[in-house]
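Would you kindly consider the sequence and fold I have copied below?
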Amino acid sequence: MKSIKNVNVHEDIAVSPLAIPILAGPGTIVTAMNFVSNAAPLQIFLVIAIFGSMSLLTYFTFRLSDLIVKTVGNNVISVIGKIMGLIIAIIGTGMIIQGIKITFKLLS
């Protein structure tokens, strides 16, 4: 029988399918379309420049994710993840309540 040595597996979680809709989901696309629908060329350029800078910021954040985790620590990352999950749940609950109000004409 051969013995299996412990193998270090490097798991890079910087890119995940959950990150893609947050970066360029339907809300982002609709907001960008609303900002440039009847806009001057300067405003269109500003929207594109902001999108480009956010893309670069996200890229560098993903590239430096190992350093960020080492600096901040796993516990802080875990706490931030739980707080963000709570915030997303609150936003989703608010959207559901707003949809029920609109559907049944309960707006006051």
About this structure: The first helix runs from residue 19 to 24. The helical segments are 19-24, 26-36, 41-63, 65-72, 74-103. DSSP finds five helices and no strands in the chain.
